[in-house]
Amino acid sequence: MDIQDLFHSCKLGDLHRVQYLVEVKEVEVDVRDKWDSTPLYYACLCGHRDIVEFLLKKGAKCEANTFDGERCLYGALTDDIRNLLKSFHVISKRTIRRDLFEEFLRKLLESKQYSDVVFSVHDEEIHAHRCILSARCLFFAHMFKTKWHDRTRIELNHANMLPGAFKAVLQFLYTGHMEVPMDLVDSCVKLARQCQLPQLVTEVEDRLKKTLSWESSKPGVRVTTLVLSPENSKEALQRDLAQLAHWAMPENLTSWVIGELPFEPETMPSTYPDVCFSVSNNHFKCHKTFFCARSDYFKAIIEDHFGETEFNGSLPVVYLHDVTVDVFVRILTYMYSDSCDLHPDLVIDVLVTADMYLLPGLKRLCGVAMATYLDVSNVVSMIQTSRLFGLVRLESQCAEFIANNLSKIIAQQEFKQLVLEDASQVKGREETDSIDVIDEIRFYISNFVQTYSEMEEANDKLRLIDDLLEELDVEG
């Protein structure tokens, strides 16, 4: 429903609603409808410059010489919007990325950080990580166990092996996305077949067909870069990398992970761990790649030897004393897949640990999970928790929940105390000052009213708030 609302708001030009859906509801800005169109395309087509600018600032994809970029430029209703697209810095390079997990993996591929294998493709060196390639591709898993066993440098000098095509396929394996020059598309398809990636072959061929068809219908337009973003790419990426977390766990804990493995036990690929975490005498064989690159806390204890580290064979062992096994399993799964199972009876413990381990993304996931079990009895304490851990979105969702259930909550002593605490934070009160929680609640009561009956209901709620403030003898 939120996705359709975003498309509708972009067509109508409702900037306020678009901002709410993207910033509070966190609807993906590059979502596509059944016509393969994005919110940015409709905003351009309908001439809503303010929405176009907002979506671009939020990282909407519109690279020059790509299908999406040229389509937005061609369909822009006004020259002003067309000039904005051309001048905006993400038109040539996408520098704002909302998906931090994809950004982490992209940087990992582009850098040499924690790399344990180097491919030399016609003398061009490409650094990679065996654990990721093995988890994402059966071909690489097999080659690392056989022909490339124990090799840290692999020469690929076949005449049909082009460095640009090889890097594009690795980009897909790391991030689930691909950006490749049109003149390398055929080479990418051949390489994807060689690597036994039939789904990638299908996705590339379908996108190429659609791009060429659109290009031929628009004289003078030329697409030079094929951008591939399959609909379920992130889910597939998360599923594959989550197996690394599964394989990192001791055998007595693997039953905790729900889901079928894509490998039979006898064909399970090697995972090439380089660090071991000991939690309550359970040893987790992990990868510095994921822990050090995603958390400054783990980078400090692993690289700077901040804490007790021993060696178990060839692996350094880091002892973690301030986390339970069940919480660490969630930390582990998040590190590899950017997701984890969060039960109501465990989420607060995970939130506290995520805060200690400097994992803002996991804190955000905890906030998302906590929002699913909001009720009239816990919403006030949830606001206090959201403020303590900086969960802005959860705080907004709590305010929205209160606005929708005001009559059931406004008389609670806990709520009244919250209002008084917020009122006491206002120093040197001016006429424009307002109480934070009251201001947020009023926003959700008033800003999405569309019918006369909704207006009457909103006015009734606003009167309840005024009566409460009068009762508490505060101005808000």
Give structural attributes:
single chain, 476 residues, alpha/beta, Serine Threonine Protein Phosphatase 5, Tetratricopeptide repeat, Potassium Channel Kv1.1, Chain A, 3-stranded mixed sheet, 24 helices, 9 strands, 55% helix, Ankyrin_rpt
Describe the structure.
The structure is a single chain. The protein is about 55% helix and about 10% strand. By secondary structure, it is of the alpha/beta class. The protein folds into four domains: about 1-90, Serine Threonine Protein Phosphatase 5, Tetratricopeptide repeat (Alpha Horseshoe); about 100-230, Potassium Channel Kv1.1, Chain A (2-Layer Sandwich); about 235-370, 2-Layer Sandwich (Potassium Channel Kv1.1, Chain A); about 380-470, no CATH class. The longest helix is centred in the C-terminal third of the chain and has 21 residues, at about 450-470. The two termini are about 35 Å apart. The relative contact order is 0.06. Keywords: ANK repeat, Repeat. InterPro entries: ABTB1, Ankyrin_rpt, Ankyrin_rpt-contain_sf, BTB/POZ_dom, SKP1/BTB/POZ_sf.
Write the layout of secondary structure elements.
Elements: H1 2-12, H2 15-24, H3 39-46, H4 49-57, H5 67-75, H6 79-87, H7 100-110, E1 117-121, E2 124-128, H8 130-136, H9 138-145, E3 153-156, H10 163-175, E4 178-181, H11 185-194, H12 198-216, E5 225-228, H13 233-248, E6 275-279, E7 282-286, H14 288-294, H15 296-303, E8 309-312, E9 315-319, H16 325-337, H17 347-356, H18 360-371, H19 379-388, H20 392-404, H21 406-409, H22 413-424, H23 436-446, H24 452-472
Parallel strand pairs: 1-3, 6-9
Antiparallel strand pairs: 1-2, 4-5, 6-7, 8-9
